[in-house]
Amino acid sequence: MIETNVIQVENLTKKFGDFIAVNAITFEVKRGEIFGFLGANGAGKTTAMKMLIGISSPTSGNAKVADFDVFTNSEDIKKNIGYMSQKFALYDDLTVKENITFFGGIYGLSRKKIEEKRQLLVEELGLQNIVNELVGSLPLGWKQKIAFSVALLHEPKIVFLDEPTGGVDPITRRQFWEMIYKASNNGTTVFVTTHYMDEAEYCDRVSIMVEGKIEALDTPKKLKEKFKVNSMNDVFLKLARNIE
């Protein structure tokens, strides 16, 4: 039987001194799935993601990403994933074209492949009029959409999105999620952190972190049924009250 999980995590823990930022979390993510990693700010989402993408070493536990061990194969993980952060994704002092070229090179694409990808990206996003503009001059919504497309340049198995829609307007958020659906339909696994509980409705499955622990994990429909509420925001509020 072919293994369909592209992320497997067991008792993954991260401590900073006596503080436990991520407390023995266990879950798996299936190939092509849109997996929502939810929680309030400070819940441990970003710390957990940093361990999975190979830029922070776990304190204990086990995890594999794209069949590579987070302890021993972090460089292989980086080659097989895409990553987009809300705080840093593109260079503001480079043009759109220069950013695409730069990151294509970082991902190891040939000049010919970079040119092909750039032309395709420009056409798909309608960037013809701004391809030579500095990224720093563009609205946040454009930056986020371009950054997501750049994270997919090398056709990674998994793309990690850390709070990708923070600060953008509702219309842009919806457009961004349409891009996520397209990536998922093309076979890319999407692992997305967010503190917008309504975005959980767009995911195949979601986990909810509270104070470093995963307190709930299932499809949005089943979580709403379990907690007898009508929205994922209500699930989160009810879960938080139960823990208190």
Automatic annotation (TrEMBL):
Residue span, ABC transporter domain: 7-236
InterPro entries with a match to the protein in the record: AAA+_ATPase, ABC_transporter-like_ATP-bd, P-loop_NTPase
Keywords, ordered alphabetically: ATP-binding, Nucleotide-binding
PROSITE patterns, per database record: ABC_TRANSPORTER_2 (PS50893)
GO molecular function terms noted in the UniProt entry: ATP binding
UniProt-recorded name of the protein: ABC transporter ATP-binding protein
Source species of the chain: Lutibacter aestuarii
